[in-house]
Amino acid sequence: MPDELVRIHRAGDGTLMFGTGPGRGAWVCSTRCFDRALRRSVLARALRTEIAADEAARLRATIDERIEHVKDGGGDQEDQGL
């Protein structure tokens, strides 16, 4: 995957997290892509879970930060739960 993509995955306990790891996952490229995926319910289908408004807000707030970290050479570090 290109470096600009950030993976969101649903762990076995239902927690939505960033990074690599087991569980249903989806890749997003920006908050714009994320918002579009939410509106179209693509993200919820990919993760096979409903995404509450507060979870969506936490994800959105973190996506650009994670993308910038990867672009700056930080790579994809360990999972970060929300």
Give the percentage of residues in beta strands.
15-25%
Instruction: Indicate the CATH class.
Output: Alpha Beta
Portion in helices: 40-55%
Overall average pLDDT: 82
Q: Any idea what the radius of gyration is? A: 12 Å
Alpha-beta classification? alpha+beta
Number of helices: 3
Instruction: Indicate the CATH topology.
Output: Hypothetical Cytosolic Protein, Chain: A
Number of strands: 4
Fourth CATH level, the homologous superfamily: YlxR-like
- Listing every helix as H and every strand as E from the N terminus to the C terminus, the arrangement reads EEEHHHE
CATH architectural designation:
2-Layer Sandwich
Net shape = globular
Total individual domains = 1
The poorly predicted ranges are none
Strand order of the largest sheet: 3-1-2-4
Terminal CA distance: 23 Å
Describe the biggest sheet?
4 strands, antiparallel
Account of the protein in words:
By secondary structure, the chain is of the alpha+beta class. It has one domain (6-77): Hypothetical Cytosolic Protein, Chain: A, CATH 3.30.1230. The protein has 3 helices and 4 strands. It has helices spanning 31-39, 42-47, 53-74; strands spanning 6-10, 16-18, 24-28, 80-81. Strands 3-1-2-4 form a 4-stranded antiparallel beta sheet. α1 packs antiparallel against α3 (53-74). The longest helix is centred in the last third of the chain and has 22 residues, at 53-74. The protein is globular, with a radius of gyration of 12 Å. The mean pLDDT is 82.
